[in-house]
Design brief:
heterotrimer, A alpha+beta, B alpha/beta, C mainly alpha, A: alpha+beta, 7 helices, B: alpha/beta, seven-stranded mixed β-sheet, 25 helices
Chain lengths: 257, 719, 411
Amino acid sequence: MVLYLKEFKVKWGMVIDLDRCTGCGACMVACQAENNLAPPVDASNKRYSMTWMLVYQLSNKQPYPNHDVAYMPRPCLQCGKPNCVPVCPVIATDKNQEGGIVSMVNARCIGCRYCQAACPYHARYFNWHDPVWPEGMEKTLTQDVSTRPRGVVEKCLYCHHRFMYARDKARIEGRDPNALAEDDYIPACVEMCPTNAITFGDLANPEHKVHKLSKSPYAFRLLERLNTDPQLYYYSQREWVRRQGDNFLEHETVGGV
Amino acid sequence: MALNRRSFLTFAAGGVAGTLFTPVIWKSIDDTAIWTQNWPWIPRLEYGAQAYAATTCKLCPAGCGLNIRTVSGRPVAAEGRTDHPLSQGGICPLGSAAVQLLYLPARIKGPMQKQADGTHQPISWDEAEALLKEKLAEQRGKEDAVVCVSGDENGTINELFSALLGGLGSEACYQMPGERQVASRVLRQGSIGYDLENADFVLAFGPDLLDSWGTIVRNKKAFGAAHPIGEEASAKYVYVGPMQNITGGAADQWIAVAPGMEGVLALGIAYHLLQAGLTAPQAHDFVSYRNQVINRYTPDFVERLTGVTPDQVAKLAEMLRNADRPLIVPGSSIAQGGGVFGFAAALSLNLLFNNVNVPGGIQVLPDLPTVVPGAQDTALIRARDFVAYIQSVAEGRTEKPGLYMVYEANPLFALPQPEVTALAFEGSYLVSFSTFYDETAAQADLLLPTPTFMERFDDVQTPYGSGFASYSLTRPVIRQPIFDTKPTGEVVLGVAKALDIDLGFTSFDKVLEAKVSALAELEGFLVESVQPWEARTGESVSAVSGNPWRTISRGAVWASIAEPFPTEMLLGSTIISQTAPPDSEDWAFPVSLVSMDSRTYGSRHIAIPPFCLPLLHEQEIQGDVFYVWMNSATARSYGLQAEDKVQLTGPSGSCLARVRIFEGVGRNMVAAPLGFGHTAWDKFSRNKGDNIYKVLTVRREPGSNLAVWADSRVRIAKA
Amino acid sequence: MCDKELWPEGVQRCSLKLFIAWLLVIFAVMAWGLYAAYVVWSGGLIVTGMDNYFAFGLYIIFDLAVIALGAGAFFSGLLYYLIRVDGLKNIINLAVIIGFICYSGALLILTLEVGQPLRAWFGFWHPNVHSMLTEVIFCITCYMIVLTIEFIPIILENRKLNKVKFLHHVAHNFHVIMPLFAGVGAFLSFFHQGSLGGMYGVLFSRPYAFREGFFIWPWTFFLFILSAVASGPGFTMLVATLMEKMTGRKLVDFSVKALMGKISGVMLAIYLIFKYLDTWGWYAGILPRSGLTFSEMFYGLAYGKWLLFSELIVFGLVPCVLLLYSKTRNTPWILYSACTMVGIGVIINRYVQTAQTLAHPVMPFDRWYVYVPTWAEWAPSLAVVAYGALILSLAYRYLPVFPQERKLNPA
């Protein structure tokens, strides 16, 4: 089942510091504005609401006063071995561009939702109905991300258009577009985060901060045991937080220090 | 040839088969790929030149810098501004959702007048302003017959209001309640700042630093910078509060304390510090403070009131003593309705560390000079207690004014016991300058909508909580206001002129220009590469040069770290002894209500924006019902389970909610979010949840006589 | 008015009035389904009970179930035309028609299920060869064509049509090449039945469904084939029995039914052996490797352990035993009950493979949700059942579906 896999020289990835994330949700709002999501009238049913970036609340499940919380922002994890890609019958989603971002071509998608079924992170969202903007609010659409009709799946693309802008800029400035520096390309959620909880960069590039951070004993990936090989790391010095990053049998210990 | 059945069928079959050999069918199928991308009811992108406009956010008092991205002049996204010291590139959820507010259905499209049947009908600006003039003229000369309440804590526009009121013979200029009111009881001139960036130990007694208190984004930036990923934290944050709110959850440590007892814990810590020999010789009330603390706030006493063990208290004291630059931040968890006792008690710890006007300490910050002739002193307005005033009017102890003007505030929703506000407003002429059709606008006799901050000039002077004095401008990022709105500053100047009151300016821009010029009176600088907190530790900055209006109106931020005047330092022993909470409580309402605020829920005058709805957790709102939080032990003792409907009843109102079990809430407490339960606005926020302000209860703090409500209590029962 | 001359020769049918009344009932159900289809096509899938957790719902479960139960067509064809199990000739027509109904019905439902039905052809134009679903799309479509070809001679045998010389010859020639189509059909069916199972087995990120396997095919690939061939013949037999009960006429000799039951029983036995092995491998291998326990995979009533027990024992082992013993198999009511149980077992399997796979919260901090289909999912599903009844009613009335009917019902 690994026939389709490609190796990349550049792997854009995040390291999200869960000890620093306060769960405010600024990243979620920034993402909606950046990617032209329609404003929901009711988002209380979490199984319908669209949040390419979603902040989960984690609890250590201890009674008062030993309770502790952590917040886990979850964009698309851009898996190295995405389960969503091989299952798509029409190649509407793929992982074949240098950088390793799992693409999603909404115009190709037939809406079978098999990719959604394949994603254990619930990072994929289906348009159950047509998007609606209140009168005039459609004027706030950016020019970077197409609107999507009902019946197609969408997901976080690490603000791929920003990646394209960064490459263009590098070309114009005579730099190598395949060797972007850390600050050249930053997704909206990373940029807006008020506590700088998200570090972004090329995981494969030792000069980028994420490279070193991803190797920290406190770094872990979500559901690593499933072998999806995400291009997104979490970081927490709290053992109980790391333990919630995957399923563990009772006797098993969690990695880290 | 006759067309019989057979030949018809042959023809039809042949036709179908023949069509398959033409491109028609294949082309049609191919075309579906194009149609399905271009349904006419889905808006398409419009392309154009992209630009950024730097401005300052006015959605809450925190004063963050915003970069509004525009495409062909259309604002499309709000981003952070790395050059703004109050936000440093960060942004809060509310600010992030700012652009979409331009087109919120709740926007008031033009001036309106209330009709006999209670509906609002559009009128022209000429009519509207004439009406305002007429109504003001009716009240002219009567003492305090015109009341103005402003929800803008930091704007120069307040000077216009107070000068106008002065011209009409009224001094009744108020601010919506906030931390400033309490702070002003401790420091009469200037305001208190907190140099978080330079502290290496931040102990917060109540304030929700990381979600709703003061300069939120700046606080978060400081917190983030102090906790660099993969490295040792450079500052430890400890939160003292009844519940594990956002700050409690993110801080390095959360000390659970009984509601309203943060001050007692602070003095319990002071006990240890004094025992250890710390002094504050510069404060001439040190001796009485010391006696009071040592005699009263013994470990046992503190444990009984706060629920914090003597061990923990001692440990906290030790952590403070071990820190190089500890900073103790007082405040209320909802940034309003707290008492003087808790504030003064927590603040006093700073003095024991001689922690005033030094890096990483509390700062005395100047009020920026007023520029509108006849405007009241900022400190004077700040100290006024609007809630106490409203209560007094509602109870008939104070004469009802003839006219209320409400600016950037929603008192009929966001004051404790809104029904009391309604009583106080009843029968008076109500003028709302609101941008949105909020609860106050819905009741107003005259609506004079001001454009959003993205469509007007405005300013932000030193927000509360900031560690330095600052000034930055808000400016239009869109060529034309979207609706038939008029900046309130212009309306006030216009009506003043019509009433022959000379406010000294012809337009609001000129007021702001004068303000910028007046900054020269203070020792300040424009923030470029050196941040104000870096300047405080000795980095050099150059004085303002060139044309400050030009630079500041393009987004530059003016800041000052100069000590404005010598301040007499007091530990506040008198006020602490007068306002100390009673040992025993005598309440008919057994459960403490811990209200929560968050920029996710909007702000005091902005309802939750559409883009913030997905941020609400599954157990924050379901459909139209919101959740109140309690721990499992509390729930059990009231026979409640998760998802049960529960009624919260205060002395003067009640709320309906569902139960969320959250172990980060103390025993016998219920935590509830503010900002839900709007009844006006639009479909994005209307009728979602219930308004907790209804169950907040105002009491007067003994000694200070300040109206307080942060420590309200309720009854809870399964509904 | 009478349509007697269209009936097959020498058989009795109900009055046209009664027949039309029956059709009206069918049309009413179909109209309800069509209305649901209109609502879904015009407003989107928001009206269904599916959501971002339950990407698949009743539509898929229904499709998987009817495709499994429709497997009688290819398997009977395989046995009859290629392996020459002669007794099956008396039920092969019915098996083909049921297959046709099940597959065309499933395809109709699929037009609702996909969010962009107008783009459905992308599956052929932009196929992803790695996707099990691509295999399903191709095989099902091709097999649908095969079924149509297999259905055509049955239609042409209508008394009136068969009088047309050309059509008579066409029908005859079709019969001659039928073994070829039976072979092609069997090949295609093996693959798409398998790929439907493979669709779940390849979900390596869904521990409930994930299975290792042979080369590119996960074990579920083979299990789906086996369970389909175990339930399909029985289902065909049950439909024949139902038609007998409704029409009051003997249509198929009991020995043929018992033969179908025997085929089901044998295939079920083979299936169960592998299913038990597979379940054990899942329990002892995949789950602990994923850090999960057996109990963590079940929740409440909708996804309880009782489903596994029912599937494997009550609706698995029990009917298997009943069908393998000739004594029980040859008792009509036991035969019918056992085949019904096999069908239920397969439906449970398709349900848990779909719904429980998606319901299981893989992230430790997530939680179980329960999927409840709405009317907009039930209505088209029932409409497809009604559509099946329509086709069967017309076929029974006008086509010589049952070769034994005249003999079994002497005038």
